[in-house]
């Protein structure tokens, strides 16, 4: 990777420059395994801190990260960490958008749609309680019309919650709470 430094002349030793360039080369391999890439490192001096801005251009996309620190080396390290996160995020987007690849949301939905292993014993089913109060006859009609085995409703007579349950023989039971 070709690295251009601007500002902060003479701040890095040869060993530090070699380490930074090897890390930038590793980032270049993350972006694309082939070709030579250019990186531009801008070092600026602020009041009480040093600031480093690293820019890498690839396929009409500019990856830019900024880091601050007490010296230039920690500032560049912070910027490279941010740059690595950006690149890995873009690579994940590209990987997930290719044909045939399932999106993470689709994968999560398919996992949730798989039936859970059936447990032995009684089952607890969630019930929605109707907001408007109704009487028992209306609840029975709702149970028949929606073809469900039970209806939980707010009883108009007692102002409590009641449940109409359809039995296996087709008759209904009323449970008042």
Could you name the key traits of this structure?
four-stranded mixed beta sheet; elongated; 177 residues; 7 strands; Double Stranded RNA Binding Domain; SHC Adaptor Protein
Q: Count all strands and give the number.
A: 7
Listing every helix as H and every strand as E from the N terminus to the C terminus, the arrangement reads EHEEEHHHEEE
Helix fraction? 25-40%
Write down the Rg. Answer: 32 Å
CATH architecture of the largest domain: 2-Layer Sandwich
As for the number of domains, it is: 2
- CATH superfamily name of the largest domain? Ribosome hibernation promotion factor-like
> Mind summarizing the main beta sheet?
4 strands, mixed
Q: What would you call the structural class?
A: alpha+beta
Mean pLDDT: 81
| Count of alpha and pi helical runs | 4
CATH class of the largest domain: Alpha Beta
How would you characterize this protein structure?
The protein is of the alpha+beta class and 177 residues long. The chain is built from 4 helices and 7 strands, in the order βαβββαααβββ. The strands form 2 sheets. It has a 4-stranded mixed beta sheet. A 3-stranded antiparallel beta sheet has the order 5-6-7, with helices on one face. Helix 1 packs parallel to helix 2. The radius of gyration is 32 Å and the shape is elongated. The termini are far apart.
């Amino acid at each position: 990777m070709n690295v251009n430094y601007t500002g902060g002349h003479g701040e890095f030793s040869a060993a530090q420059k070699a380490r930074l360039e090897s890390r930038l080369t590793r980032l270049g391999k993350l972006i694309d395994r082939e070709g030579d890439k250019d990186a531009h490192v801008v070092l600026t001096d602020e009041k009480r801190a040093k600031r480093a801005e690293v820019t890498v251009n690839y396929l009409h996309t500019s990856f830019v990260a900024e880091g601050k620190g007490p010296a230039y080396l920690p500032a560049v390290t912070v910027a490279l960490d941010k740059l690595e996160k950006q690149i890995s995020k873009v690579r994940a987007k590209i990987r997930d958008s290719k044909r045939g690849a399932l999106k993470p949301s689709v994968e999560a939905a398919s996992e949730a749609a798989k039936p859970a292993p059936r447990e032995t014993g009684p089952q607890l089913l969630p019930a929605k309680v109707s907001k408007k109060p109704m009487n028992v006859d209306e609840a029975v009609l709702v149970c028949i019309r929606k073809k469900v085995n039970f209806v939980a409703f707010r009883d108009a007579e007692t102002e409590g919650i009641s449940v109409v349950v359809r039995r296996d023989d087709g008759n209904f039971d009323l449970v008042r709470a």
